[in-house]
Design goal:
Elements lengths: L1 H20 L5 E8 L5 E2 L2 E11 L6 E3 L3 E11 L5 H10 L10 E12 L6 E2 L4 E11 L4 E11 L12 E6 L5 E9 L10 E9 L2 H11 L4 E10 L4
Antiparallel strand pairs: 1-3, 2-3, 3-8, 4-7, 4-9, 5-6, 5-9, 9-13, 10-11, 11-12
Length: 234
């Protein structure tokens, strides 16, 4: 009997308790490839942007409003006139950038932005994906795709963020920033299905967003990913 009880306890510990303590987790995927069967038009090319999110855990996870941003990089051959100063600035800076002596990068012109997925739930082991057609001028030789996806381990409700809805917008520097919008109550409508009003949004820093989401779900995480992609000439 002792051995049986110990086996039940061990199973409950490993299968229920330990997974319930684990923070939210997803794996993000990015690819940007020539649009199949569509080709190019004079001065530009059509590409397929494919985004994926996989839940590798043993629990359901809940996506909040998320966003993607496509930025162009103009990589031109040439001698970087102030390479030493530029390289040291990159090495001492906070952003993950690089400096190349014989390449001049003109970064970044935002070409497109949008929502990745709806506010959604992903089952354990499930992958959701989306393909988006984007058009990129031939003048650009590379691009960067950036994603940001806040994830919860419990279903969002009216207690999340003080009853407001989180969305995203581009600021004056074309950086993606989180904002809070007012929910417009409607009878017989759930919190996530209610209309929202973003006429006077409250802009948040990444730290503020993390703190406010953590009050609702201590196991939440905000996932981000970016990928720089070479664009072969047609």
């Amino acid at each position: 009997m002792v051995a049986s009880l110990w086996g039940i306890y061990t199973f409950y510990w490993q299968s229920v308790l330990v997974p319930s303590w684990a923070p939210a987790h997803i794996n993000l995927g990015i690819s940007l490839t020539p649009g199949e069967g569509r080709g190019s038009s004079p001065g530009s090319r059509e590409m397929t942007l494919k985004l994926t999110a996989t839940n590798p855990s043993s629990r359901k996870i809940y996506l909040l409003a998320n966003a993607w941003q496509l930025s162009a990089i103009d990589r031109r051959q040439g001698l970087q006139p102030a390479f030493l100063e530029d390289a040291n600035g990159v090495l001492l800076g906070k952003a993950l950038l690089q400096s190349e002596k014989y390449i001049i990068d003109d970064q970044y012109a935002t070409l497109a932005a949008g929502r990745m997925f709806d506010d959604d739930m992903i089952h354990p082991g499930e992958t959701i994906e989306r393909s988006i057609l984007v058009r990129i001028p031939d003048t650009y030789s590379a691009a960067e795709v950036s994603l940001v996806v806040p994830v919860l381990t419990r279903p969002p409700d009216r207690h999340l963020l003080g009853g407001k809805r989180m969305m995203w917008q581009l600021n004056s520097n074309e950086d993606m920033v989180p904002i809070l919008c007012r929910v417009v109550p409607q009878p017989d409508t759930s919190f996530l299905e209610s209309d929202i009003s973003c006429d006077k949004p409250e802009e948040l820093s990444s730290k503020e967003l993390d703190q406010r989401l953590r009050k609702f779900d201590s196991l939440m995480r905000v996932f981000s990913d970016s990928d720089q992609i070479n664009l072969s000439k047609p």
